[in-house]
TrEMBL record:
Belongs to the pyruvate, phosphate/water dikinase regulatory protein family. PSRP subfamily. It is an enzyme of class 2 (transferase). The lineage of its organism: Bacteria, Bacillati, Actinomycetota, Actinomycetes, Micrococcales. Keywords: Kinase, Nucleotide-binding, Serine/threonine-protein kinase, Transferase. It comes from Knoellia koreensis. NCBIfam families: PRK05339.1. ADP binds at residues 158-165. GO terms for molecular function: ADP binding; ATP binding; phosphotransferase activity, phosphate group as acceptor; protein serine/threonine kinase activity. It holds the Pfam family Kinase-PPPase. Its EC number is 2.7.11.33, 2.7.4.28. This is Putative phosphoenolpyruvate synthase regulatory protein. Bifunctional serine/threonine kinase and phosphorylase involved in the regulation of the phosphoenolpyruvate synthase (PEPS) by catalyzing its phosphorylation/dephosphorylation. It catalyses: [pyruvate, water dikinase]-phosphate + phosphate + H(+) = [pyruvate, water dikinase] + diphosphate; [pyruvate, water dikinase] + ADP = [pyruvate, water dikinase]-phosphate + AMP + H(+).
Length: 278
């Protein structure tokens, strides 16, 4: 039977011994290659014992139907717990199975198979950098704080609902980068200058755009029937934002059809930023 259909989304589980961030990120990157299918996603993190995994397997198997075979993306590193997971009737994509074996073979060194090492907790410096970056991103979300902007690794600039917040948080969480984001509003387009708080920080700015139709759709979910969500308003803001980026030589990308992971990769490459937590 096919794994998915037009009426039944394929259940997808991200199972991990730690936070599940790696399983979610790698799994979603693979699922993006199947845009015609729909998926229902559930993350099951912090599976540290065989007993816990037995309960997980029961849940996984209960999601099986004659029409749909669930997918399980796993970053469980403990060998005994991994073997318990493989008892499921679901399709398991073991992200730290054969690929990790290949790495061990090339390096001629056995992997530690430890949860702390997999999630960066073994290196206190990188872990602390990531936590501080998350705090910074939360404090400086949507222009909420203008304090200490000069210490930002990156400042995302865009009209409302172009993806500033999720991209900022992803860059902080996954890469330990201190990212502020600043919303562009009507008055910012009057002069053609960068808004005063970021006027002298143009070299750290990166612009986000979208398409008028996509932006109108996203805003309409928040404020249906409003001027804010109208196609005319969205077109105006995007047009002026693009002109602003061009005038100040601020690099930009269109977020309409990109995942957060893709946006983060493009931004880091364009801005010559390196991950601090890898």
């Amino acid at each position: 039977m096919p794994s998915g259909s037009a009426t039944a989304p394929t259940p997808v589980f991200f199972v991990a011994g730690g936070t599940g961030i790696s399983a979610e990120t790698l799994g979603n990157l693979m699922l993006q290659q199947f845009p015609s299918l729909s998926f229902s996603r559930r993350k099951i993190p912090f599976i540290r014992t065989v007993e816990q995994m037995r309960d997980v397997v029961v849940e996984l198997d209960s999601s099986m139907t004659e029409q749909v075979t669930p997918l399980v993306f796993s970053t469980v590193s403990d060998e005994e717990i991994r073997q318990e997971l493989l008892r499921t009737k679901c399709a398991v994509i073991d992200l730290f199975g054969p690929p990790l074996d290949d790495v061990e073979r090339v390096l001629h060194v056995n992997a530690t198979h430890g949860t702390a090492a997999l999630h960066g907790l073994g290196d206190t410096r990188r872990y602390d950098a990531r936590m501080k970056a998350i705090e910074y991103a939360m404090e400086h979300d949507d222009g909420a704080s203008l304090r200490n902007l000069e210490s930002a690794d990156l400042i995302l600039v865009a009209p409302s609902r172009c993806g500033k917040t999720p991209t900022s948080m992803y860059l902080a969480l996954q890469h330990g980068l201190k990212v502020a984001n600043y919303p562009l509003v009507d008055e910012d387009f009057d002069t053609g200058d960068l808004p005063r708080p970021i006027k002298d920080l143009g070299d750290r700015c990166f612009g986000l755009l979208s398409t008028p139709a996509r932006l109108s759709q996203v805003r309409g979910e928040r404020r249906p029937g409003s001027k804010y969500a109208s196609l005319a308003q969205c077109s105006y803001e995007l047009r002026r934002a693009e002109a602003l980026y061009r005038a100040h030589r601020i690099p930009s990308i269109n977020s309409a059809k990109m995942s957060v992971e893709e946006m983060a990769a493009v931004i880091m490459q364009s801005a010559h930023l390196s991950s601090l937590s890898s």
